[in-house]
Amino acid sequence: MxxxxxxxxxxxxxxxxxxxxxxxxxxxxxxxxxxDSVGIIDSHFPQADFFTEFERFDRHIDKxxxxxxxxxxxxxxxxxxxxxxxxxxxxxNSADVICEKPIVLNPWNLDALQTxxxxxxxKAYNILQLRLHDSVRELKAKVEAGPQDKIYDIDLTYxxxxxxxYYTSWKGAKHKSGGIASNIGVHFYDMLIWIFGAVxxxxxxxxxxxxxxxxLELERARVRWFLSINYEVIPQHIKDTGAxxxxxxxxxxxxxxxxxxxxxxxxxSYQAVLDGHGFGLEEARPAIQTVHDIxxxxxxxxxxxxxxxxxxxxxxxxxxxG
Length: 322
Prior knowledge:
Layout: E1 3-7, H1 14-23, E2 27-32, E3 49-51, H2 54-66, E4 73-76, H3 83-92, E5 96-99, H4 107-120, E6 124-126, H5 134-145, E7 152-160, H6 165-168, H7 174-177, H8 180-196, E8 199-207, E9 211-218, E10 221-228, H9 236-239, E11 245-251, E12 254-256, H10 265-274, E13 279-280, H11 281-296
Parallel strand pairs: 1-2, 1-4, 2-3, 4-5, 5-6, 7-10
Antiparallel strand pairs: 6-13, 7-11, 8-9, 9-10, 11-12
Helix pairs in contact: 1-10, 3-4, 4-11, 5-8, 8-11
């Protein structure tokens, strides 16, 4: 049984990490978050010590180590711009780290973390859960078994509506979240690059407060992509079901179905790390480089081969009404 500490216990994704720790037969012994709405811990590890101040959390982790109850893994679920610092904390406390996506915002952050890995002998792992999805793995196998000169035409659509709160939170600040492409799209880019090869061309058509859209040319695919947090762009038949999220991937005009099978992917990710097969810093690099390039690209507008949903009306920014 391994000892885990968790940074970012009140966030949206934290319960998946708690469940993964429990489902893999391990224990959470300490958690940190500046916000104390963390009753979810009671469903998994009611005996875990909880801190709202980093300094006291740091001191507690050190005390545990000195008492022979050292933390083996630090799970990082904090805001994206803090991942780099919190990974360093874990590595320097002689723990391996499991970090939510995106692992960092910039490719040079990976270089610095690799230096810390060498200094400490510890490892940092990224949650790249789509690589463990059964349908995605089957697709990769099918592409690898198919004609090697085949170039696939793909449309990627991911719509996950957010309310006005999003713009007030750290997620609405590009320098903290990395923008929409980093915050909600990085794992899809990782999936596509993993299956269809390295990025050859990266064009951004639109990148604003409620959406990002562009074109990726991979070694074996041409990808038009569209990401949005605007509820109004969700297809009506999806709205009619009460859903506020829509994901679609069409390959050669055929829909690739992977809407299910997400329930236990964090648990599978944790088990892979524990078994010595986790996704390390270098494996995260292609997607991190891609979203960094998207974030810093000058959008060209609706020119060339753009995703058809990119021309749908934008939402008004809640802080720019009237």
